[in-house]
Design brief:
The complex is a heterodimer of chains A (140) and B (482). Chain A has 140 residues and is of the alpha+beta class. Chain A contains two helices and eight strands. In chain A, the strands form two sheets. In chain A, strands 1, 2, 6, 7 and 8 form a five-stranded antiparallel β-sheet that branches. In chain A, strand 7 and strand 8 form a beta hairpin. Helix content of chain B is 33%, strand content 24%. Chain B has one domain: tRNA-splicing ligase RtcB. Classes of the chains: A alpha+beta (140), B alpha+beta (482).
């Protein structure tokens, strides 16, 4: 999985995720988000949660995807470790819309921290050297 | 940007509005030379960003615990004219009404120490902690509506507290005019918040049993019912997933409003809307719902803390003197009237990692504290001291009635996790006699005491600047963390 944690911000946590395709980027960003909180190796079980997201552009879609994953994580009580995108389409209203799944276990692992929300501070989706790069700062 | 700071006196620094393009007002930083030496340049730049927003009122303020956050630095205050200015979901942050309450006891530490382990075990079992933790209270949809409408009053009306608790909360534990339902409160927010009433959460939130170590101001300490050697309880938590979702929903809505109202932003996180616009007022009403949820959350947990003490010490909580000293909020936007240059101005004051510090005689503070001023509760980092301060007239004149909120981070979370191991931190604190109860040890690493500024230096700065004064210093005996 391709993501990194630049040590660039004092109070919160930043990550950068990469993807050859936009769908790969969505998955890697989700991995980066939940890897902040716990070690995936500690999670057992295979509960599946359906997650939808939408946005008028790909940047807003990424924000909605990450925010909605946090909601499902808290409400469903599933510690996600794998993600997939089942459908990716443009609606008649010209919005991007995805349906994805997130899988994980329900037993609480040892936590490193708790992510409260996805901030817009430095939030960016770029194309660099023919790949997608997302920069995200989360509130912890 | 730091090199442009001009020292005004021992505890005050000024950044003129000429420091960069588009600044509408200057910025002031409260802090000693030592504080300024460790302040990140990025935090100063963030102050200048806020100073560019429409209707901002001079000065934008950073407290000595300020550090680089997202949007507004943590430990900062931004006030905006109620007619010409903006309300910003970004400036308020995600953990709306993250706050602290202090409960006193009539127990001396010598009575608590022999039962400390039993007490911390009991509290850890009684107060749900951890990420996504589900509370012991099952709320129906209409009950949830009542919680966000009534705040701590809901808890009192449902046998989780007494009237005196409400009198000793900022805003009496409830802001009037809260939005409760769609479209102003989304179904996502309600769904996220409903199971979480009465939960501590995780991360930097905690429940601490403390000892009053030192009294600095006998008169104020007497008024607050504090004396040396006394056991007290400090509870630090916020509006949980409900507040986080309200913030998320309005970041998205205000990102659209910024384009609609043609507001230039130096940082996307500073999304805002004109204070009088539908978007601005809808956010304010939704934020009040999250504020109320947090007040209610702390009130419900207070009830369980009282039950825990009753169980361990075998007496009613009233006989144990578990009265609420005060409940303050650290992350909020408030409509307040302040006197500026001799005339009264209606403002929206955003405090992000900052505490209201109203001085004596202010009608917004409880009757029994009128003579001395509002209690200000400063939670230190884990394993270090906490303070009780009192608000001053100087804060009213200079900082929109605001002061610091805690120690403030000195090291990034990533650096702390790289440098410290949670288990080592737990061991070293337990060797000092503290009892630590947490859902795991890894979570202790990012909260390592050395990852924070020295709380004593932070407090000396606000005391030295007279924007709040020292009343008491507490040290931890036991802590519950999510």
């Amino acid at each position: 999985m391709r993501f990194e944690y630049p040590d660039e911000i004092t109070s919160d946590q930043m990550f950068r995720a990469f993807g050859q395709t936009f769908q790969e980027l969505l998955i890697n960003a989700a991995m980066a988000l939940f890897s902040i909180m716990y070690d995936f190796e500690e999670i057992k079980g295979e509960s599946t949660v359906r997650v939808e997201a939408k946005g008028v552009d790909k940047e807003k879609l990424l924000y909605d995807w990450l925010s909605n994953l946090l909601i499902e994580f808290e409400v469903e009580g599933v510690f996600f470790t794998s993600f997939s995108i089942e459908s990716f389409e443009k609606t008649p209203e010209k919005e991007f819309h995805i349906i994805g799944t997130a899988k994980g276990g329900r037993e609480m692992p040892e936590l490193r921290t708790h992510v409260k929300g996805i901030t817009l501070h430095r939030f960016a989706l770029e194309r660099v050297n023919n790949e997608y790069v997302a920069t995200v700062v989360v509130d912890v | 940007m730091k090199e442009k700071l001009k020292q005004l006196d021992e505890y005050r620094w000024w950044l003129d509005k000429s420091a960069r393009d588009r600044m509408n007002v200057g910025a002031k930083i409260i802090g000693s030379r030592k504080i300024i030496d460790t302040l990140e340049n990025a935090a100063v730049e963030q102050l200048t960003n806020v100073a560019t927003l429409p209707g901002v009122v001079e000065p934008v303020l950073a407290m000595p615990d300020a550090h680089w956050g997202y949007g507004l630095p943590m430990g900062a205050v931004g006030a905006f004219d109620a007619d010409e200015g903006v309300i910003s979901a970004g400036c308020t942050g995600f953990d709306i009404n993250c706050g602290v309450r202090l409960i006193r006891t009539n127990l001396n530490v010598t009575e608590v120490q022999p039962k400390l382990r039993q007490l911390m075990d009991d509290l850890f079992n009684r107060v749900p902690a951890g990420v996504g933790s589900k509370g012991k209270i099952r709320l129906s949809d209409s009950q949830f509506t009542d919680v966000v409408r009534l705040g701590a009053r809901w808890a009192v009306e449902n046998d989780h507290g007494v009237e005196a608790d409400l009198a000793h909360c900022e805003e009496n534990g409830s802001m009037e005019g809260a939005a409760t339902n769609a479209p102003r409160i989304t179904e996502k927010a309600r769904r996220r918040g409903r199971p979480q009433l009465g939960t501590l959460g995780a991360g930097n939130h905690y429940l601490e049993v403390q000892k009053v170590e030192k009294i600095f101001d006998e008169a104020a300490a007497n008024t607050f019912g504090l004396k040396s050697g006394q056991a007290v309880i400090m509870l630090h938590c916020g509006s949980r997933g409900f507040g986080h979702q309200v913030a998320t929903d309005y970041l998205e809505r205000m990102a659209i409003a910024v384009k609609k109202y043609n507001i230039w932003l130096p940082d996307k996180q500073l999304v805002c809307a004109p204070a009088s616009s539908p978007e601005g007022q809808d956010y304010y009403a939704a934020m009040k719902a999250a504020v109320n949820f947090a007040f209610c959350n702390r009130q419900v947990m207070t009830h369980w803390i009282r039950e825990g003490f009753e169980s361990v010490f075998g007496r009613d909580w009233e006989k144990l003197g578990l009265d609420l000293v005060y409940d303050v909020t650290h992350n909020i936007c408030k409509f307040e009237t302040h006197e500026l240059n001799g005339s009264k101005r209606d403002l929206y004051v955003h405090r992000k990692g900052a505490t209201r510090a109203f001085g004596p005689g202010n009608l917004k503070i409880p009757d029994d504290y009128q003579r001395v001023g509002q209690p200000v509760l400063i939670g230190g980092s884990m394993g270090t001291a906490s303070y009780v301060l009192v608000g001053t007239d100087q804060a009213m004149k200079e900082t929109f009635g605001s002061t610091c909120h805690g120690a403030g981070r000195a090291m990034s979370r990533k650096a702390a996790i790289r440098r410290y191991h949670g288990r080592d931190i737990k061991n070293s604190l337990e060797q000092k006699g503290e009892v630590i109860r947490s859902t795991g040890t890894k979570i202790l690493a990012e909260e390592a005491p050395k990852a924070y500024k020295d709380v004593h230096i932070v407090v000396e700065s606000v005391h030295g600047a007279d924007i709040s004064r020292k009343v008491a210093c507490h040290v931890p005996l036991g802590v519950v963390k999510g």
